[in-house]
């Protein structure tokens, strides 16, 4: 193998979900089976890197300051679904069963990994809570220790004395399972079967 090919393969392997073999197949496909895709892929990556950023309100992807979900006046602004990352937002939105707003934390609390409150999107969540417009927060985080700690932090530190209903999805999600990996029916059941937190 050439050093350039190995470098390409190494870079592809850093993408989530790609192992050595998958990275090798993609590299070979780009270089030999569909060479024309290289230019359009490079252009799309550069364009997205230059234009896409986080919504200043919820943390979703947008090319403007505020994402289309936050701007949608038909959504229930009193219900806020808190998720760990953007794939979970897309997974829940894909069920078609939630008409409220979202808040993306971009991770969960994990002291062992050096992730504290200052590393997550808590400041804008606190602003949304302090606005007095939120009536219910749905904690749609994974079913693991870090997510539980994050839920307790939100409840105890951010919500405090505000009269906000707090619920936690859980029905249908296995212990240790990820929200982003669940199918639409399971997520719909999890949302409908949420419990008070």
General description of the model:
Helix content is 43%, strand content 14%. By secondary structure, the chain is α/β, with parallel strands linked by helices. It has two domains: 3-51, RecR Domain 1 (Helicase, Ruva Protein, domain 3, Orthogonal Bundle), CATH 1.10.8.420; 61-196, 3-Layer(aba) Sandwich (Dna Topoisomerase Vi A Subunit, Chain: A, domain 2), CATH 3.40.1360. The strands form two sheets. Strands 4-3-5-6-7 form a five-stranded mixed β-sheet. A two-stranded antiparallel sheet has the order 1-2. Strand 3, helix 5 and strand 4 form a beta-alpha-beta unit. The relative contact order is 0.11.
Q: Descriptors for this entry?
A:
197 residues; alpha/beta; Helicase, Ruva Protein, domain 3; Dna Topoisomerase Vi A Subunit, Chain: A, domain 2; two-stranded antiparallel ribbon; 8 helices; 43% helix; 14% strand
Report a brief summary of the structure.
43% of the residues lie in helices and 14% in strands. With 197 residues, the chain is an alpha/beta fold. It folds into 2 domains: 49 residues, RecR Domain 1 (Helicase, Ruva Protein, domain 3), CATH 1.10.8.420; 136 residues, Dna Topoisomerase Vi A Subunit, Chain: A, domain 2, CATH 3.40.1360.10.
Radius of gyration: 20 Å
> Looking at CATH, which topology of the largest domain would you report?
Dna Topoisomerase Vi A Subunit, Chain: A, domain 2
Q: How far is it from the N-terminal to the C-terminal residue, by CA?
A: 55 Å
Name the strands of the widest sheet in spatial order: 4-3-5-6-7
Instruction: Using the coordinates above, name the CATH class of the largest domain.
Output: Alpha Beta
Report the β-strand fraction as a percent range. Answer: 5-15%
Let me know the number of strands.
7
Q: Tell me, what's the shape?
A: elongated
- Main sheet summary: 5 strands, mixed
Provide the low-confidence segments as ranges.
Answer: none
Mean pLDDT: 89
Q: Decide which structural class fits the backbone.
A: alpha/beta
Number of helices: 8
Q: Helix and strand succession?
A: HHHEEHEHEHEHEHE
The helical percent reads 40-55%
If classified by CATH, what would the architecture of the largest domain be? 3-Layer(aba) Sandwich
Please indicate the count of domains.
2
């Amino acid at each position: 193998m050439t050093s350039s090919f190995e470098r390409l393969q190494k870079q592809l392997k850093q993408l989530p979900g790609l192992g050595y073999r998958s990275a090798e197949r993609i590299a070979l496909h780009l270089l030999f089976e569909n060479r024309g895709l290289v230019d359009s892929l490079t252009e799309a990556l550069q364009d997205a890197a230059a234009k896409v950023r986080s919504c200043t309100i919820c943390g979703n992807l947008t090319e403007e300051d505020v994402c289309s979900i936050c701007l949608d006046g038909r959504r229930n602004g009193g219900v806020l679904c808190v998720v760990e990352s953007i794939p979970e937002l897309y997974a829940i939105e894909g069920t078609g069963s939630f008409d409220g707003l979202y808040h993306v934390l971009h991770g969960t609390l994990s002291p062992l990994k050096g992730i504290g409150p200052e590393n997550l999107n808590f400041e804008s969540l606190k602003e949304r809570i302090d606005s007095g417009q939120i009536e219910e927060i749905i904690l749609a985080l994974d079913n693991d220790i870090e997510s539980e700690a994050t839920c307790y932090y939100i409840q105890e530190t951010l919500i405090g004395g505000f009269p906000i209903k707090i619920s936690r999805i859980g029905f249908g999600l296995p212990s240790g399972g990820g929200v982003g990996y669940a199918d639409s029916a399971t997520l719909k059941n999890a949302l409908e079967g949420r419990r008070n937190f």
